[in-house]
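Note to self: keep these together.
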Amino acid sequence: MAQLLRRLDDEIYVEYNRFGLSGTDLPSWGSPTDEIYHFVAAVRLESWDAEPGTADASWTPVSSATFVAESGVVAIASMADGRGHDFLIGPPRFEYGVDMYLREPEPGDGHGTGKSDETWLLRFWPIRDVFDPITHAAPFTYIARGVLYYSIDLEPEQLVQPPARRKVPVPVSAAADWASLCPDPDLDTFDGRLRRWRRKAEDRGVTVHELLREAGVDIADGADLTPASCTPPQARAGRFKDPLIDRYYAEQAQRRSLSKQDLGEDQLREYADGERIAKELCRGGTHTFSVPVEGRGALYAPAGVSRRVWRWEDDMLGGELMDDGLRVDRQILARNPWTRQILVSGIVTVLRRDHGRRGYDDTVWYVVRDAEPHEAARVLCAEATWEEDQDRRRALDEVAREKLIDLRATYRSRER
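Structure:
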């Protein structure tokens, strides 16, 4: 039987009756209600571990589709700047199914304002692993020093080409392998707390609503159990209309972690979504740590994606690890005897940006965890698939070098 993993209530302003689902290869969608073009929609997003049954009778089925997820994180996006909260549906590079339902607005459906014109339900579930290193892990096109700066034209055959044959078999994982598709009853998210409340209420022979009222929450029997309705008044900051941002701000304010920061709503949204998804990508007791990610693509390392990273570590006696991390396919690439440091690489899974570590130039710090076996297998497969032939690389370097010399000579002749 399919199991609900997590859900999120959101709200978005839709313009010209078109919206998209970022993080997917789906085209834009439209509401089946043709007579309205600009409206506020309350959206409920649900992630399931398998195809769920039909929603209850209050929901009307609208459409179904399949798509491939880029990182496993999606968000509703409207035509202009409107964007909903990030939501984790599962692993990256999986094919998913989604069912869309529509319901007439009911009290409480307006997630942020208390009012909405439509209410949608989007249910996601994994179908199969479709990772292909040629399609999904292609390296940057051929780059030689000066080629980009001078805009040297290279022939198509001089760019990175798909390998003639695969060097290693492509790993195929099952949905049950992934932490994002395994419910963790102790996860510190709203759904994790809801599961704990239900267990506690069942043990005591009361309802969840009665249990919450004992804790000081003013909630009526039968009311929707949402982060807003389940939060005691004294724990609410009351500063933001969006209850997810408001609750995050209240939690951080109680911990005094925001006392010296003046964060706007967009930053708070990013922080709240990032920390929630980072927890959902980990199993209970998972060790996390921070690493610098440098170079091309450093600014856009999405949560849930695994990759190889490099960092300098102190060369500890006895091989003791710096922070008990970077263990998967760990390689020592260089040693600096003067500073007694080693350059180490390893495979990790990105969880979120580390906002406590300031980057510099094209270096960004991320909170990560060591990759699990099925995640590391994808990275190792991509590395083996795209491994360069050194003789061919040297030949291409020589072609680029000749073009660069000719172009520089042309520039110098124009300057005279």
